[in-house]
Design a protein that fits this description.
The protein is built from seven helices and no strands. It is an all-alpha fold. The termini are far apart.
């Protein structure tokens, strides 16, 4: 708006205004398409990670139930499973300020649950089947955890996001150049800037499903392991 007062009159003629409006319209269409694609991609990534967490919770609940059906001999394995999940939740969903989510796998905790399951000595065919099923589920948990880490490794395309933000800045610059200097026009431009900034913020938050404002809840994983084993 300050620049507008310094331009020569012919730069603000009707023909110049129409040309600028056409250019801004084209840029606005392209920016809207790219921003929509980025938000859609981020939402798909968020949904995929949430589905993976739900799948892990289901396998954890099943493994805990299998070990419970095995009998009192599997109490140690159930405690190791709870320690594994509690540690993983504490890493992925940090509670203290400034901490970052960590999806890395602790090999010692993973080996502990395997050792506990393999140490079981079945006394009949049912316990043998339950032990085999528990071993398969433990491998499924490792595979699911690796899949979750792989999904979380993806992120927003920085070059595309930078291009979209640059276009949005230019579009608002062009609108400000053509707008009159009054409270209504200024308010409209500020609201527009807040709106597009909110869309970019939502996009970035969707790529941080274990921290920030939009989080995948950890309650499902914690409830999957039930009450502490005595």
């Amino acid at each position: 708006m300050s620049l507008r007062g310094r331009l020569a009159e012919h730069h603000l003629s009707h023909e110049s205004r129409d040309t600028v409006k056409l250019a801004l319209g084209l840029m606005g269409t392209l920016a809207g398409l790219l921003l929509g694609l980025l938000v859609s991609s981020a939402n798909e990534s968020f949904d995929s990670e949430r589905e993976q967490v739900n799948a892990l919770a289901a396998k954890i609940a099943t493994l805990d139930r299998v070990l419970s059906l095995y009998g009192a001999e599997a109490a140690s394995a159930r405690r190791d499973l709870r320690a594994l999940i509690d540690g993983a939740v504490a890493q992925a969903w940090p509670t203290h300020a400034g901490a970052r989510s960590d999806l890395s796998f602790d090999p010692q905790r993973g080996e502990a649950i395997f050792r506990s399951i393999q140490a079981l000595q079945p006394s009949d065919a049912l316990q043998s089947d339950l032990k085999a099923r528990a071993t398969d589920l433990a491998f499924d948990l490792i595979e699911g955890r690796s899949m979750l880490v792989a999904l979380a490794a993806g992120g927003v395309s920085v070059p595309v996001l930078t291009l979209v933000i640059a276009w949005l800045v230019l579009i608002l610059f062009g609108f400000s150049l053509l707008a009159p200097r009054n409270s209504v026009a200024v308010s409209a431009l500020i609201i527009s800037a807040i709106a597009v900034s909110g869309a970019v913020l939502l996009l970035l938050e969707l790529y941080r499903p274990f921290e920030g404002m939009l989080q995948i809840s950890s309650d499902l994983l914690l409830s999957a392991i039930g009450q502490p084993v005595e």
